[in-house]
Design brief:
Blueprint (H helix, E strand, L loop, with lengths): L5 E4 L5 H8 L8 H13 L9 E6 L5 E12 L3 E11 L5 H18 L4 E5 L4 H10 L9 E5 L21
Parallel strand pairs: 4-5, 5-6
Antiparallel strand pairs: 1-2, 2-3, 3-4
């Protein structure tokens, strides 16, 4: 049986579609800043601490159904954790299925990188938060703690990318 969603790093062809998913999170984000952020994120190699990666969920027809931004960061208590400041699902028909596919990929990555926990911002969807809270904790095979953070995102990951010559909107 074919998996319903393919999870993979964002490609150049998917950047503009990805903008449509993330732009509601930050009204100051414009397409030029998003493109610049994606170019920087996709051009860096390795899994160094703090390096942000963008992953998308696509359906069998190739349409983007979800997107997340993640990076390994150092947590004072947990040590290395997989931080997911952006976790967006854009499916009216299968929000839970898309979220489960993205979360499963994050779980596998956290285990591969020996992270103690996964921290996901779930501010955009109470339903998604409840789903991850109830089923997400048992989804990882290894004991990876799940931290669900409902607080609003204070600074978007793309806001840190100021060395690109684009004007800063305030």
């Amino acid at each position: 049986m074919e998996r319903a969603y393919k999870i993979a790093p964002i490609t150049t062809e998917q950047v503009d579609a990805g903008y449509l998913l993330v732009s509601p999170l930050d009204r100051r984000l414009d397409v030029a800043r998003w493109r610049s952020y994606c170019e920087k994120a996709t051009s860096e190699l390795g899994t160094a601490v703090g390096r942000q990666q963008i992953v998308v969920a696509t359906n069998p027809r190739g349409y983007l159904q979800g997107l997340c931004v993640h990076a390994v960061v150092k947590h004072l208590v947990q040590g290395a954790i997989l931080d997911v400041p952006v976790f967006v699902v854009a499916s009216a028909a299968d929000e839970i299925g898309v979220a489960a596919a993205l979360f499963g990929d994050l779980c596998a990555l956290a285990e591969r990188l020996d992270c103690a926990a996964i921290r996901i911002r779930t501010e955009s969807s109470q339903r998604l938060h409840r789903h991850l809270e109830s089923s997400g904790r048992s989804a990882c095979e290894r004991r990876v703690a799940l931290i669900l953070d409902q607080r609003p995102l204070l600074e978007a990951p793309w806001a840190q990318s100021q060395g690109d010559g684009l004007p800063v909107k305030t």
